[in-house]
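Section: protein folds

Sequence with per-residue tokens
===
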Amino acid sequence: MVEEVKTYHAEVTRDGKFWLIRVREINRSTQALRYKDVEAMASDLVEIMEGLRGDEYNLHLEVQLPSSVTDHQARAEVLREEAQRKQAEAAAESRAAVHELLALGLSQREAGELLGVSFQRVSQLAKSS
């Protein structure tokens, strides 16, 4: 029979120049000076308090960032999605320009010169729908 491995949840917050780490399941806390040390400190706490080895449990870090930081992250994601949409629109317009120039009888090389792109790019745009 396979024994289920317990998961410990470490709540991580920044307080001044330290990272505070609270492990819910054992109601104990520790701290780290650098974020790179958070996981090791939380693991040490669990292992010392519960008498476990690293392979006998799972550790899940839950970092709680300030709301201003999460607001910036959310806005950045919105802007990235908007940029992707705008990039797709720009590509569609480039394709339309290429199709119109080619329909006028221009060569791909001529269309590239007029649009400021290589004739290879014109060829790619002409083949895409």
The mean pLDDT is 94.
